[in-house]
């Protein structure tokens, strides 16, 4: 394995981490459009909290997929062909979620406005849940042959471990979204988000314990990397505890950063367990490795130069956009 291969494996992990940290609260807020907000005015405020950001946050996912395609074409080919149906459903969920915000704002009738509000809620839930299922089933090992072709059955995708992983990621996104609403609103919405998180965090703790137990029995992470895997699982629990402490003490930034780092910890856990592999096969001899799944050294070298030239500009833009829209939004009842 070369240094450039290692760097690009890490960079893809960083891109997925950025996506789940940023779009994670978008998914959470989207899920809350119908269940959390009580009327049209409150839904307007909830959607406005992520209005300036959600489409930009999805760029992290597009960039991660593009980076995977350019740097590890074998990984991209096996993952995207083997998970074609699940990725198609994720794409449909993301499309419905995205257009729902625009269509809802232009609907003249309550019926269609209600339809697009449900589209935002269901699309956000499905995207978060399916992402969790995809990555969880991937690390459990899939039926991959010597050519890198995956021929999986329903139970390879949908099983107890993948369902628990899907629920865990969904709840992580949900509490992350509630923490973001606490940061972005005032009045009744802010207070309600705090009350909801006081209920949801004990559920999240139970889910994390169950996920850790299934991770031990369903993957080889604890066998191959016992120290680092244990450390990351402990780190996940610690940042969740810090976020919950922030909820109980009404420390909004601590809660938000803690819930975001919880999602990042899951990505780190996955990439740590994968290394030096990129896809885990049921037959270890057929697992795809970093060293034989990457593009040519020249391509990786050129991509590295371009990436580190453009990345600072992108980061400056993201920081600027969040700074411009940092002000809180008032709850409708507060204005009355």
TrEMBL record:
Transmembrane segments: 6-33, 83-103, 115-140, 160-178, 199-217, 229-248, 260-280, 300-325
Coiled coil: none
Main location: membrane
Keyword annotations: Cell membrane, Electron transport, Heme, Iron, Membrane, Metal-binding, Transmembrane, Transmembrane helix, Transport
Subcellular location: Cell membrane
Membrane topology: Multi-pass membrane protein
PANTHER family: CYTOCHROME BD-I UBIQUINOL OXIDASE SUBUNIT 2, CYTOCHROME BD2 SUBUNIT II
Family: Belongs to the cytochrome ubiquinol oxidase subunit 2 family.
Name recorded for this polypeptide: Cytochrome d ubiquinol oxidase subunit II
């Amino acid at each position: 394995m070369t240094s450039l291969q290692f760097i690009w494996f890490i960079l893809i992990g960083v891109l997925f981490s950025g996506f789940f940290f940023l779009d994670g609260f978008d998914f959470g807020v989207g899920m809350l459009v119908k269940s959390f907000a009580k009327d049209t005015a409150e839904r307007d405020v909830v959607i406005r909290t992520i209005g300036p950001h959600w489409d930009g946050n999805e760029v992290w996912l597009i960039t991660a997929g593009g980076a995977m395609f350019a740097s590890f074409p074998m990984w991209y080919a096996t993952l995207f062909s083997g998970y074609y149906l699940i990725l198609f459903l994720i794409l449909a969920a993301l499309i419905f979620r995205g257009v729902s915000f625009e269509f809802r704002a232009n609907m003249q009738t309550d019926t269609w406005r209600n339809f697009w509000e449900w589209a935002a809620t269901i699309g956000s839930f499905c995207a978060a849940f399916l992402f969790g299922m995809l990555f969880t089933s991937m690390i459990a090992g899939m039926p991959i042959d010597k050519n890198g072709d995956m021929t999986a059955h329903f139970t390879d995708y949908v099983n107890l471990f993948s369902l628990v992983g899907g629920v865990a990621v969904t709840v992580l996104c949900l509490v992350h979204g509630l923490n973001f609403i606490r940061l972005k609103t005032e009045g009744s919405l802010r207070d309600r988000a705090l009350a909801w998180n006081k209920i949801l965090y004990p559920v999240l703790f139970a889910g994390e314990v169950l996920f850790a137990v299934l991770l031990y029995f369903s993957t080889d992470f604890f066998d191959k990397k016992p120290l680092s895997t244990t450390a990351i699982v402990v780190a996940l629990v610690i940042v969740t505890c810090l976020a919950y402490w922030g909820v109980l003490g009404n420390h909004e930034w601590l809660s938000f950063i803690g819930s975001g780092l919880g999602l990042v910890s899951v990505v780190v856990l996955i990439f740590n367990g994968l290394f030096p592999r990129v896809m885990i096969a049921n037959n270890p001899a057929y697992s795809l490795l970093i060293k034989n799944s990457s593009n040519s050294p020249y391509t990786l070298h050129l991509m590295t130069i371009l990436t580190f030239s453009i990345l600072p500009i992108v980061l400056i833009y993201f920081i600027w956009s969040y700074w411009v829209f940092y002000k809180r939004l008032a709850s409708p009842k507060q204005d009355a």
